[in-house]
Design a protein that fits this description.
This protein has about 80 residues and is an all-alpha fold. The protein is built from 5 helices and no strands. The protein has a single domain, classed as 434 Repressor (Amino-terminal Domain) (Orthogonal Bundle). Helix 1 packs across helix 3 and helix 2 crosses helix 3.
Length: about 80
């Protein structure tokens, strides 16, 4: 099963965003994204996880690993 960091990186990469771009769009510190993706921090605070899921257009359940299948992550066409 993928970790939060792996899922975060997967969803970000699908959108072609850098870590800095995700942080800017989610209005969270860049180091938070970096720490989650490199697993220096393994579990994000709930408010951070919700903001990341919302920004990436995925469910919080998927981001947190409740499902094995990455196909369950909804895609959002045209996210600005």
């Amino acid at each position: 099963m993928a970790t939060v960091g792996e899922r975060l990186q997967e969803a970000r990469a699908k959108r072609g965003w850098t870590q800095q771009e995700l942080a800017r769009r989610a209005k969270i510190p860049y180091m938070t994204v970096y720490r989650l993706e490199t697993e220096l921090t393994r579990t994000p605070r709930m408010d951070i996880a919700k903001q990341l899921a919302r920004t990436l257009g995925v469910t919080l359940d998927w981001l947190c690993g409740m499902y094995d299948d990455s196909e369950l992550a909804p895609t959002t066409a045209g996210m600005a």
